[in-house]
Input
Amino acid sequence: MTSRRAFLIRVCGAVSVAAAGTAAEAQLPPNIAALRKAAIEEAVRKVVGGARLRRGRVKLELPPLIENGNAVPLSVTVASPMTPADHVKAIHVFTEKNPQPNVISAWLGPRAGRAAISMRARIADTGTVIAIAQMSDGSFWSDRVEVVVTLSACLEDGLI
Amino acid sequence: MARVIVNLPKQARRGEVIEIRTLVGHDMETGFRRTQLGELIPRNIISRLVCHYNGVEVFRAELHPAIAANPLLTFTTVATESGSLVFRWSGDHGFTTTHTATILVV
Output
């Protein structure tokens, strides 16, 4: 038996999802996927320059299934001794589907003791999240995680 | 003045790695949202956090609109000497706020 309250919640949900969907389609350019890919590549290139980006040493942790994209707990740890000779200089995080790919850039040093930061991010849509660590020897290491977002940040306003 | 909460141990052993958790009350308006009339709400975010330990910079972060409202940021530092940690946030429309925490290193 469906209560009146449950019924209303379901109807309101369906209407808002439909409205958001049409609004999003109306505002987004048709080649949005290509634009987003170019934007994230450009953002990564700005950080990495011409250097080689290798997988490993970095561990990016966030829930694989995100119910609310407005506040996603996200942490990055890097395997590094954090000595003056060998430490992590910077950690950068990017998301694929946000209007802007950058999430955070953090600069640490040997005085951090451990290369570990955490924050809460907004993630707009199902896609890839990338963390890049810049080491003191000039090498770049990365980790990427695929996430599924059920309620996205920004969707309510028609701009994924 | 924004509400700030900084959480770190009051006392630490020399050389110990301490975890610092910071939280600021701020909307972090992305600049991508619209009002019901369709006008863009201008961006208003905290874009920077700098942490100085006894005058030496130990941590700096640049935040973007993809950081959730009320930005929470956790990082670590080595407890080298007793003294103060000064946290300074700055952002759009001239937003700045600072917080000072003291630590006793034994």
Observations:
- Chain B touches chain A at residues 17-18, 30, 32-34, 53, 56, 58-69, 71-78, 80 (CB under 8 Å).
- The mean pLDDT of chain B is 91.
- The longest strand of chain B covers residues 96-105.
- Chain B has no helices and eight strands.
